[in-house]
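note to self: dont lose this again. the chain is below, predicted strucutre after it. 152 aa total, dont forget to put it in the shared folder this time
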Amino acid sequence: MGKRSQASFDYLVIVGIAMVLIIPTFYLFYTHSREASTQIASSRMDMVGSELLKQSKTIYYTGKNAKTTVEFELPDNLVNFTVENNSVATEMVMTTSISGVNQSLVFFTDIPIFLGNCTELFPFNTTTFYNPGKKRVVVESCGSNVTLRLVK
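---
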């Protein structure tokens, strides 16, 4: 009977040591992967915003009736996309929600950008294309401003 109980006790010690090693390892892996996904989402949104601004400036300075199409993919955690104009600058704001925490990426430019097309502008808080997935946006110069229009 003594040898059996000794083997059971040894087995429990080995399982206990394994659990002490495995549980913190899983926790570290989970924490690291969550931080990595946050950084990837922020980086992706930064790339989208930078590309839209770059193309908007290029089209604006090219002149009236110039246009191009920009393709990109929006992540699942984007909750809002707005373009706000005032007399000094244009703000393009992308808000993401990661683990219940909202984070806004703000891009500033001195050229007027609107959502819509050259005949119908939507200047304030229009969130027409912040659903996740692949998007195609036409960037068009109207002469005195640039418009961003979602193409299906």
